[in-house]
């Protein structure tokens, strides 16, 4: 009886999301670190509000159709990301293709919890004030990631993630997101108000919100398409897995819109935090870790009550990281439970140990082990990020669109859409989304680069 309730094959009777819990959990999966350190940067680089409008269009034409497809396939198949395609009525070959959407989140999680650990460390350092005793923030960050302390925080991050997932869907993942997502909203609002009221913040707001349509280009369109795809956690099995825990009576259309809106609002507020803060203190709004772990601490150090607001900011990042980590972990957990009928606790312990083991070389690739720090110009951490994000995720998205558009006879019933909206959705899945995802794949791998002379 216990193994039945733990199996993703039968989540509907024993352990499933409530309607609100499902939407919050799905938003939690999309609210990650990328929107905080990447979206503001690419928005400012490609035309501010003009790019933001383009991003909204891309979210509608590629993000939402694929999002709905993944949820519908997961709910119809009631299996793991690897088995839902076949259990939903698809050809057996999609069982092998679906396995990719189990492998990818596992690989992402191996390096994602490393960064999650950094955010936990920096939150404590900021609240204590120790972060600001040395104003060489670049040197401080490099010294930290080149040492052994990140391993401790990596263990802490996966321990928190595993503890939540071990408690199940309703008692673990749903409760976790019901607490943290509202908390994240409060932190976003507090930090946004602080940012836009800083001296000189108006220039940052103007840079972010004033449209510059002259900067829109084919390159900008591909960047917007890629971010619309990645920011919703598409192609990595999360929404396929979460779909298996959704009640059959849950309308997927409105839920898809709510998840997309949550992702959009988070990205927008992130811009209203990053740009006013960086402009106020004359800091370059770089992309990636250099922004949040080097540039922004410099801003917080010069801000009244900076250690407090810096601490809130890193707590915000930690929440974003951990809610995403929880959703990433659930994908391989559901697979091993479905495949080998393991209990949830056993599955979590084994997968978490494997995550730490596989992630150890990435954590050591910042200088401790020289052979891992420079592999054809990238360290191992960056290579894993590049391969999973730029190659494997678009391939996973192509699998979903091709399956739902051409091989799924139950698509109309599973989607729950009216006849008119179903025809529009199917058209997008057949003729628009696969082509655009393919172009994203070509762009992210460097085959298409419109910036080259």
Detailed description of the structure:
This protein has helices at residues 2-6, 11-14, 19-30, 33-37, 39-45, 49-77, 84-87, 93-128, 137-145, 149-166, 169-196, 201-209, 218-231, 238-243, 252-280, 289-301, 306-340, 344-363, 370-373, 380-407, 411-415, 419-444. The protein is mostly helical. It has one domain: Amino acid/polyamine transporter I (Up-down Bundle). Helix 16 runs antiparallel to helix 17 (306-340) and helix 17 (306-340) packs across helix 18. The longest helix is centred in the first third of the chain and has 36 residues, at 93-128. The model is unreliable at 1-13 (pLDDT under 50).
Keywords:
453 residues, mainly alpha, Amino acid/polyamine transporter I, globular, disordered N terminus
A few lines on this structure:
By secondary structure, the protein is mostly helical.
């Amino acid at each position: 009886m216990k193994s039945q309730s733990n199996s993703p094959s039968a989540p509907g009777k024993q352990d499933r999301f409530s309607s609100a819990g499902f939407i919050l959990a799905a938003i939690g999966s999309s609210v990650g670190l990328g929107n905080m350190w990447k979206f503001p940067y690419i928005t400012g680089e490609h035309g501010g509000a003009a790019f933001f409008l383009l991003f909204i269009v891309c979210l509608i034409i590629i993000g939402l159709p694929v999002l709905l497809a993944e949820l519908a396939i997961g709910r119809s198949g009631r299996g793991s990301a690897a088995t839902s395609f076949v259990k939903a009525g698809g050809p057996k070959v999609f069982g092998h293709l679906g396995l990719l959407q189990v492998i990818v989140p596992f690989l992402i999680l191996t390096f994602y919890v490393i960064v999650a650990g950094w955010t936990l460390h920096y939150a404590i350092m900021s609240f204590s004030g120790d972060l600001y005793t040395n104003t060489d923030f670049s040197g401080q960050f490099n010294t930290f990631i080149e040492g052994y302390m990140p391993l401790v925080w990596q263990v802490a991050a996966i321990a928190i993630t595993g503890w939540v997932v071990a408690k199940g869907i309703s008692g673990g993942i749903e409760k976790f997101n019901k607490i943290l997502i509202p908390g994240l909203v409060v932190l976003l609002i507090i930090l946004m108000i602080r940012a836009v009221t800083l001296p000189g913040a108006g220039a940052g707001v103007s840079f972010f919100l004033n449209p510059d349509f002259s900067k829109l280009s084919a390159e900008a369109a591909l960047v917007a398409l890629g971010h619309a795809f990645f920011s919703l956690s598409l192609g990595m099995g999360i929404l396929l897995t979460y779909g298996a825990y959704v009640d059959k009576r849950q309308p997927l259309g409105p839920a898809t819109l709510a998840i997309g809106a949550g992702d959009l609002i988070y990205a927008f507020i992130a811009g209203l935090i990053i740009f006013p803060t960086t402009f106020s203190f004359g800091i370059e709004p770089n992309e990636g870790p250099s922004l949040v772990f080097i540039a922004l601490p410099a801003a917080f150090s010069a801000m009244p009550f900076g250690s407090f607001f810096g601490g809130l900011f890193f707590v915000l990042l930690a929440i974003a990281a951990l809610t995403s980590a929880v959703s990433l972990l659930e994908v391989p957990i559901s697979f091993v439970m479905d495949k080998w009928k393991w209990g949830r606790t056993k599955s979590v312990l084994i997968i978490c140990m494997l995550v730490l083991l596989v992630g150890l070389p990435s954590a050591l690739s910042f200088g401790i082990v020289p052979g891992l720090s420079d592999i054809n110009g990238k360290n191992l951490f960056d290579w894993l990020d590049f391969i999973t994000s730029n190659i494997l995720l678009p391939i996973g998205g192509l699998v979903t669109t091709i399956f739902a558009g051409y091989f799924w006879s139950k698509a109309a019933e599973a989607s729950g859409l009216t006849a008119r909206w179903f025809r529009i959705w199917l058209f997008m899945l057949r003729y628009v989304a696969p082509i655009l995802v393919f172009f994203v794949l070509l762009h992210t791998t460097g085959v298409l680069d419109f910036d080259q002379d």
